[in-house]
Design a protein that fits this description.
Layout (H helix, E strand, L loop, with lengths): L1 H12 L10 E3 L6 E3 L9 E7 L5 E7 L7 E5 L6 H15 L2 E5 L13 H19 L6 E6 L3 H8 L7 E5 L5 H5 L13 H4 L7 E6 L7 H10 L7 E3 L11 H16 L12 H6 L2 H9 L5 H5 L5 H7 L3 H16 L1 H12 L10 H12 L15
Parallel strand pairs: 5-6, 5-7, 7-8, 8-9, 9-10
Antiparallel strand pairs: 1-2, 3-4, 4-6
Helix pairs in contact: 2-15, 3-4
Protein backbone atom coordinates (compact mmCIF):
# COMPACT_ATOMS: atom_id res chain seq x y z
CA UNK A 1 0.00 0.00 0.00
CA UNK A 2 2.75 2.44 0.98
CA UNK A 3 4.80 1.65 -2.13
CA UNK A 4 1.77 2.16 -4.37
CA UNK A 5 1.02 5.50 -2.72
CA UNK A 6 4.63 6.63 -3.13
CA UNK A 7 4.63 5.66 -6.81
CA UNK A 8 1.35 7.48 -7.38
CA UNK A 9 2.74 10.56 -5.63
CA UNK A 10 5.79 10.65 -7.88
CA UNK A 11 3.59 10.58 -11.00
CA UNK A 12 1.29 13.26 -9.62
CA UNK A 13 3.62 15.83 -8.26
CA UNK A 14 7.33 15.94 -8.77
CA UNK A 15 9.27 17.58 -11.61
CA UNK A 16 12.73 18.59 -10.33
CA UNK A 17 14.77 20.82 -12.67
CA UNK A 18 17.05 18.76 -14.86
CA UNK A 19 19.88 19.60 -14.74
CA UNK A 20 19.94 21.35 -11.35
CA UNK A 21 20.48 25.09 -11.50
CA UNK A 22 23.50 25.02 -9.17
CA UNK A 23 26.51 23.10 -7.95
CA UNK A 24 28.17 23.33 -4.54
CA UNK A 25 31.78 24.30 -3.94
CA UNK A 26 33.77 24.93 -0.79
CA UNK A 27 35.46 28.30 -0.35
CA UNK A 28 39.12 27.63 0.44
CA UNK A 29 39.56 30.72 2.59
CA UNK A 30 36.50 30.36 4.81
CA UNK A 31 35.72 26.67 4.45
CA UNK A 32 32.07 27.58 3.80
CA UNK A 33 29.95 25.92 1.13
CA UNK A 34 28.72 28.13 -1.69
CA UNK A 35 26.58 27.81 -4.81
CA UNK A 36 28.96 27.85 -7.79
CA UNK A 37 26.38 28.93 -10.36
CA UNK A 38 24.71 31.81 -8.51
CA UNK A 39 25.79 35.39 -9.21
CA UNK A 40 26.14 38.07 -6.55
CA UNK A 41 26.21 35.73 -3.57
CA UNK A 42 25.86 37.30 -0.16
CA UNK A 43 27.94 36.87 2.95
CA UNK A 44 24.88 36.52 5.18
CA UNK A 45 23.81 33.26 3.48
CA UNK A 46 24.79 29.85 4.88
CA UNK A 47 24.68 26.87 2.53
CA UNK A 48 24.02 23.64 4.41
CA UNK A 49 23.68 19.90 3.89
CA UNK A 50 21.16 18.25 6.19
CA UNK A 51 20.50 14.57 6.85
CA UNK A 52 16.87 13.43 6.92
CA UNK A 53 15.38 10.54 8.90
CA UNK A 54 14.73 8.74 5.60
CA UNK A 55 18.44 8.61 4.80
CA UNK A 56 18.72 11.42 2.27
CA UNK A 57 21.01 14.46 2.37
CA UNK A 58 19.26 17.67 1.34
CA UNK A 59 20.67 21.10 0.55
CA UNK A 60 19.37 24.15 2.41
CA UNK A 61 20.22 27.84 2.59
CA UNK A 62 19.76 30.14 5.56
CA UNK A 63 19.57 33.91 5.08
CA UNK A 64 20.47 35.78 8.27
CA UNK A 65 18.88 39.14 9.01
CA UNK A 66 20.38 40.74 12.17
CA UNK A 67 17.30 42.87 12.87
CA UNK A 68 14.75 40.06 12.41
CA UNK A 69 12.59 38.69 15.20
CA UNK A 70 10.83 36.07 13.02
CA UNK A 71 12.09 33.33 10.72
CA UNK A 72 10.39 32.02 7.57
CA UNK A 73 10.83 28.37 6.58
CA UNK A 74 10.03 28.38 2.86
CA UNK A 75 8.92 25.26 0.92
CA UNK A 76 9.22 26.17 -2.76
CA UNK A 77 7.04 25.14 -5.68
CA UNK A 78 7.60 22.59 -8.41
CA UNK A 79 10.09 22.73 -11.28
CA UNK A 80 12.35 24.94 -9.14
CA UNK A 81 15.29 24.50 -6.82
CA UNK A 82 16.95 26.82 -4.31
CA UNK A 83 19.59 27.89 -6.81
CA UNK A 84 16.79 29.51 -8.81
CA UNK A 85 15.14 30.81 -5.64
CA UNK A 86 18.38 32.23 -4.15
CA UNK A 87 17.84 35.90 -5.01
CA UNK A 88 14.11 35.78 -4.28
CA UNK A 89 14.88 34.37 -0.83
CA UNK A 90 17.50 37.01 -0.07
CA UNK A 91 15.22 39.82 -1.24
CA UNK A 92 12.28 38.55 0.81
CA UNK A 93 14.54 38.45 3.86
CA UNK A 94 15.33 42.13 3.39
CA UNK A 95 11.87 43.39 2.48
CA UNK A 96 10.00 41.40 5.13
CA UNK A 97 12.72 41.85 7.77
CA UNK A 98 12.93 38.12 8.54
CA UNK A 99 15.47 35.35 8.62
CA UNK A 100 14.66 32.86 5.89
CA UNK A 101 15.51 29.20 5.34
CA UNK A 102 14.82 27.54 2.01
CA UNK A 103 15.57 23.91 1.24
CA UNK A 104 15.48 21.49 -1.68
CA UNK A 105 13.31 18.40 -1.51
CA UNK A 106 14.94 15.00 -1.89
CA UNK A 107 15.86 14.58 -5.56
CA UNK A 108 15.77 18.34 -6.23
CA UNK A 109 18.88 20.42 -6.89
CA UNK A 110 21.86 18.71 -5.27
CA UNK A 111 19.76 16.87 -2.68
CA UNK A 112 20.12 13.11 -2.78
CA UNK A 113 17.34 10.54 -3.20
CA UNK A 114 14.13 10.64 -5.18
CA UNK A 115 11.17 12.87 -4.43
CA UNK A 116 8.13 11.43 -2.70
CA UNK A 117 5.42 12.74 -0.42
CA UNK A 118 6.91 11.13 2.68
CA UNK A 119 10.40 12.30 1.77
CA UNK A 120 9.23 15.92 1.56
CA UNK A 121 7.82 15.55 5.07
CA UNK A 122 11.19 14.29 6.29
CA UNK A 123 12.91 17.10 4.37
CA UNK A 124 11.01 19.94 6.04
CA UNK A 125 11.42 18.24 9.41
CA UNK A 126 15.20 18.21 8.92
CA UNK A 127 15.15 21.89 7.91
CA UNK A 128 13.10 22.83 10.97
CA UNK A 129 15.39 20.78 13.22
CA UNK A 130 18.36 22.70 11.82
CA UNK A 131 16.67 26.00 12.64
CA UNK A 132 16.11 24.88 16.21
CA UNK A 133 19.45 23.22 16.91
CA UNK A 134 21.92 25.26 14.83
CA UNK A 135 20.32 28.71 14.93
CA UNK A 136 18.27 28.55 18.12
CA UNK A 137 15.02 29.43 16.35
CA UNK A 138 11.95 28.43 18.36
CA UNK A 139 8.69 27.38 16.76
CA UNK A 140 7.04 30.37 18.45
CA UNK A 141 9.15 32.58 16.15
CA UNK A 142 8.75 30.47 13.00
CA UNK A 143 6.45 31.12 10.03
CA UNK A 144 5.96 28.27 7.55
CA UNK A 145 5.62 29.35 3.92
CA UNK A 146 4.32 26.76 1.43
CA UNK A 147 4.15 27.53 -2.28
CA UNK A 148 2.04 25.27 -4.54
CA UNK A 149 3.27 21.72 -3.90
CA UNK A 150 5.21 23.15 -0.94
CA UNK A 151 1.89 23.70 0.83
CA UNK A 152 1.89 19.94 1.45
CA UNK A 153 5.00 19.65 3.62
CA UNK A 154 4.28 23.06 5.19
CA UNK A 155 0.86 21.97 6.47
CA UNK A 156 2.12 18.55 7.54
CA UNK A 157 4.69 20.24 9.78
CA UNK A 158 2.22 22.90 10.92
CA UNK A 159 -0.14 20.37 12.48
CA UNK A 160 2.80 18.94 14.46
CA UNK A 161 4.00 22.25 15.89
CA UNK A 162 1.52 23.38 18.57
CA UNK A 163 3.24 26.74 19.19
CA UNK A 164 3.94 27.73 15.58
CA UNK A 165 3.71 31.48 14.97
CA UNK A 166 1.95 31.51 11.57
CA UNK A 167 1.50 29.86 8.15
CA UNK A 168 1.53 31.39 4.66
CA UNK A 169 0.03 29.39 1.78
CA UNK A 170 0.93 30.62 -1.72
CA UNK A 171 -1.17 29.11 -4.55
CA UNK A 172 -1.83 26.06 -2.36
CA UNK A 173 -3.51 22.78 -3.33
CA UNK A 174 -6.43 21.05 -1.62
CA UNK A 175 -4.77 17.73 -2.46
CA UNK A 176 -2.85 16.21 -5.34
CA UNK A 177 -5.81 14.42 -6.88
CA UNK A 178 -8.11 17.43 -6.57
CA UNK A 179 -5.83 19.43 -8.84
CA UNK A 180 -6.80 17.10 -11.71
CA UNK A 181 -10.25 15.86 -10.77
CA UNK A 182 -13.14 17.48 -8.86
CA UNK A 183 -13.38 14.64 -6.33
CA UNK A 184 -15.73 15.18 -3.41
CA UNK A 185 -13.95 13.04 -0.83
CA UNK A 186 -10.40 12.11 0.03
CA UNK A 187 -9.25 8.80 -1.49
CA UNK A 188 -6.62 6.55 0.03
CA UNK A 189 -4.10 7.04 -2.77
CA UNK A 190 -4.36 10.84 -2.77
CA UNK A 191 -1.35 12.86 -1.64
CA UNK A 192 -0.88 16.10 0.27
CA UNK A 193 -4.34 15.98 1.81
CA UNK A 194 -4.27 19.65 2.81
CA UNK A 195 -8.06 19.86 2.87
CA UNK A 196 -8.07 17.48 5.84
CA UNK A 197 -5.14 19.12 7.63
CA UNK A 198 -5.93 22.83 7.44
CA UNK A 199 -8.70 22.66 10.11
CA UNK A 200 -6.09 21.29 12.53
CA UNK A 201 -3.76 24.31 12.25
CA UNK A 202 -4.13 26.50 15.35
CA UNK A 203 -2.04 29.52 14.33
CA UNK A 204 -2.94 32.43 11.99
CA UNK A 205 -2.99 31.50 8.30
CA UNK A 206 -2.56 33.81 5.30
CA UNK A 207 -3.66 32.45 1.91
CA UNK A 208 -2.46 34.02 -1.37
CA UNK A 209 -3.89 32.89 -4.71
CA UNK A 210 -4.35 34.23 -8.23
CA UNK A 211 -7.91 34.33 -9.55
CA UNK A 212 -6.82 33.12 -13.01
CA UNK A 213 -4.53 30.29 -11.87
CA UNK A 214 -4.38 27.77 -14.73
CA UNK A 215 -2.47 25.11 -12.79
CA UNK A 216 -4.12 25.09 -9.36
CA UNK A 217 -7.61 26.54 -9.57
CA UNK A 218 -8.37 29.58 -7.42
CA UNK A 219 -11.04 27.51 -5.64
CA UNK A 220 -8.27 25.57 -3.87
CA UNK A 221 -6.94 28.60 -2.04
CA UNK A 222 -10.41 29.92 -1.34
CA UNK A 223 -11.64 26.67 0.21
CA UNK A 224 -8.52 26.25 2.33
CA UNK A 225 -8.97 29.78 3.67
CA UNK A 226 -12.61 29.06 4.51
CA UNK A 227 -11.53 25.98 6.49
CA UNK A 228 -8.92 27.86 8.57
CA UNK A 229 -9.48 28.28 12.30
CA UNK A 230 -7.39 31.44 12.51
CA UNK A 231 -8.17 33.35 9.32
CA UNK A 232 -6.13 36.33 8.25
CA UNK A 233 -7.31 38.63 5.47
CA UNK A 234 -6.49 36.65 2.29
CA UNK A 235 -4.89 38.06 -0.83
CA UNK A 236 -6.82 37.18 -3.97
CA UNK A 237 -4.80 38.64 -6.83
CA UNK A 238 -7.18 39.48 -9.66
CA UNK A 239 -5.81 38.13 -12.94
CA UNK A 240 -2.93 36.37 -11.18
CA UNK A 241 -1.74 33.03 -12.57
CA UNK A 242 0.21 30.27 -10.84
CA UNK A 243 3.74 31.60 -11.07
CA UNK A 244 3.49 35.36 -11.40
CA UNK A 245 2.07 36.51 -8.07
CA UNK A 246 5.39 38.04 -6.98
CA UNK A 247 5.05 40.50 -9.85
CA UNK A 248 2.02 42.19 -8.29
CA UNK A 249 2.68 45.17 -6.00
CA UNK A 250 0.04 43.87 -3.60
CA UNK A 251 2.10 40.73 -2.97
CA UNK A 252 4.91 42.30 -0.95
CA UNK A 253 2.58 44.91 0.49
CA UNK A 254 0.22 42.31 1.93
CA UNK A 255 3.05 40.10 3.18
CA UNK A 256 4.59 43.02 5.04
CA UNK A 257 1.23 43.83 6.58
CA UNK A 258 0.85 40.23 7.72
CA UNK A 259 4.36 40.00 9.17
CA UNK A 260 3.78 43.27 11.04
CA UNK A 261 0.54 41.94 12.52
CA UNK A 262 2.22 38.68 13.56
CA UNK A 263 5.08 40.55 15.24
CA UNK A 264 2.58 42.46 17.37
CA UNK A 265 0.96 39.27 18.62
CA UNK A 266 2.05 37.69 21.85
CA UNK A 267 3.95 34.48 21.41
CA UNK A 268 1.66 31.46 21.08
CA UNK A 269 2.77 30.17 24.50
CA UNK A 270 0.71 33.04 25.86
CA UNK A 271 -3.03 33.25 25.36
CA UNK A 272 -3.73 35.38 22.27
CA UNK A 273 -4.78 38.91 23.19
CA UNK A 274 -5.14 41.34 20.34
CA UNK A 275 -6.26 44.34 22.41
CA UNK A 276 -4.17 47.49 22.16
CA UNK A 277 -1.40 47.61 24.73
CA UNK A 278 -3.01 50.31 26.87
CA UNK A 279 -6.24 48.31 27.11
CA UNK A 280 -4.34 45.18 28.04
CA UNK A 281 -2.57 46.98 30.86
CA UNK A 282 -5.92 48.12 32.22
CA UNK A 283 -7.17 44.52 32.49
CA UNK A 284 -7.19 42.92 35.91
CA UNK A 285 -4.10 41.10 37.14
CA UNK A 286 -6.07 37.90 37.46
CA UNK A 287 -7.06 37.87 33.81
CA UNK A 288 -3.49 38.67 32.77
CA UNK A 289 -2.00 35.87 34.83
CA UNK A 290 -4.55 33.39 33.57
CA UNK A 291 -3.83 34.31 29.97
CA UNK A 292 -0.10 33.79 30.47
CA UNK A 293 -0.64 30.31 31.88
CA UNK A 294 -2.56 29.12 28.83
CA UNK A 295 -0.49 27.92 25.89
CA UNK A 296 -3.50 28.27 23.58
CA UNK A 297 -7.22 28.89 23.91
CA UNK A 298 -9.03 25.77 25.06
CA UNK A 299 -11.10 23.62 22.72
CA UNK A 300 -14.21 24.73 24.56
CA UNK A 301 -13.31 28.35 23.87
CA UNK A 302 -12.89 27.64 20.16
CA UNK A 303 -16.20 25.77 20.04
CA UNK A 304 -17.99 28.77 21.48
CA UNK A 305 -17.19 30.67 18.30
CA UNK A 306 -13.72 32.09 18.75
CA UNK A 307 -13.46 35.00 16.31
CA UNK A 308 -11.06 34.54 13.44
CA UNK A 309 -7.60 36.06 13.54
CA UNK A 310 -8.53 38.53 10.85
CA UNK A 311 -11.59 39.76 12.76
CA UNK A 312 -9.72 40.09 16.03
CA UNK A 313 -6.96 41.99 14.29
CA UNK A 314 -9.54 44.36 12.83
CA UNK A 315 -11.01 44.93 16.29
CA UNK A 316 -7.83 46.71 17.23
CA UNK A 317 -8.42 49.40 14.68
CA UNK A 318 -10.33 52.60 15.46
CA UNK A 319 -13.29 53.63 13.35
CA UNK A 320 -11.11 56.10 11.48
CA UNK A 321 -8.44 53.52 10.68
CA UNK A 322 -11.06 51.06 9.44
CA UNK A 323 -12.40 53.71 7.11
CA UNK A 324 -8.89 54.32 5.81
CA UNK A 325 -8.39 50.58 5.27
CA UNK A 326 -11.61 50.38 3.27
CA UNK A 327 -10.59 53.38 1.23
CA UNK A 328 -7.23 51.73 0.56
CA UNK A 329 -8.92 48.54 -0.62
CA UNK A 330 -11.23 50.51 -2.92
CA UNK A 331 -8.26 52.31 -4.43
CA UNK A 332 -6.46 49.02 -4.97
CA UNK A 333 -9.41 47.58 -6.85
CA UNK A 334 -9.87 50.72 -8.96
CA UNK A 335 -6.33 51.17 -10.19
CA UNK A 336 -3.02 49.33 -10.05
CA UNK A 337 -1.29 52.64 -10.71
CA UNK A 338 -2.68 54.22 -7.59
CA UNK A 339 -1.28 51.32 -5.56
CA UNK A 340 2.12 51.77 -7.11
CA UNK A 341 2.14 55.47 -6.24
CA UNK A 342 0.97 54.96 -2.68
CA UNK A 343 3.44 52.16 -2.09
CA UNK A 344 6.33 54.19 -3.45
CA UNK A 345 5.33 57.05 -1.19
CA UNK A 346 5.35 54.78 1.82
CA UNK A 347 8.68 53.31 0.80
CA UNK A 348 10.25 56.76 0.94
CA UNK A 349 9.89 56.70 4.71
CA UNK A 350 10.87 53.09 5.16
CA UNK A 351 14.56 52.80 6.03
CA UNK A 352 14.83 49.13 5.13
CA UNK A 353 13.32 49.78 1.67
CA UNK A 354 15.19 53.02 0.89
CA UNK A 355 16.88 53.21 -2.51
CA UNK A 356 15.18 50.00 -3.68
CA UNK A 357 12.62 49.44 -6.37
CA UNK A 358 11.22 46.42 -4.56
CA UNK A 359 8.59 45.11 -6.91
CA UNK A 360 10.44 45.66 -10.15
CA UNK A 361 13.54 44.00 -8.74
CA UNK A 362 11.67 41.00 -7.39
CA UNK A 363 9.67 40.78 -10.60
CA UNK A 364 12.84 40.68 -12.67
CA UNK A 365 14.10 37.82 -10.52
CA UNK A 366 10.91 35.83 -11.01
CA UNK A 367 11.15 36.32 -14.76
CA UNK A 368 14.87 35.50 -14.86
CA UNK A 369 14.58 32.12 -13.16
CA UNK A 370 11.77 31.04 -15.45
CA UNK A 371 9.48 29.76 -12.71
CA UNK A 372 6.44 30.22 -14.93
CA UNK A 373 7.00 26.88 -16.64
CA UNK A 374 5.74 25.06 -13.57
CA UNK A 375 3.38 22.20 -14.51
CA UNK A 376 3.06 20.77 -11.02
CA UNK A 377 0.45 18.11 -10.58
CA UNK A 378 -0.91 18.73 -14.08
CA UNK A 379 -0.56 15.23 -15.52
CA UNK A 380 -2.99 13.41 -17.75
CA UNK A 381 -5.07 10.48 -16.62
CA UNK A 382 -3.12 8.25 -19.00
CA UNK A 383 0.13 8.99 -17.20
CA UNK A 384 -1.43 8.14 -13.85
Amino acid sequence: MGTATSSMAAKFAFFPPNPPSYNITVDEASGKMRFSDVNYQRDNVDVLKLSTKRGNEIVAMYVKNPSASLTVLYSHGNAADIGQMYHIFTELSVHLNVNLMGYDYSGYGQSSGKPSEQDTYADIEAANKCLEEMYGIKQEDTILYGQSVGSGPALELAIRLPHLRAVILHSPILSGLRVMYPVKRTLWFDIYKNIDKIPLVDCPVLVIHGTEDEVVNFSHGKQLWELCKEKYEPLWLKGGNHCDLELYPEYLRHLRKFISAIEKLQRPRDAPDLKPKDQTEQASNNVTEQSKEKSRPSIDYREKGRPSFGHREKSRLSTDSRDKARASIDKREKSRKSIDRSFKARNSTDHSERARNSFDRLGDMVRSVGLCNVDCLKQTAAEV
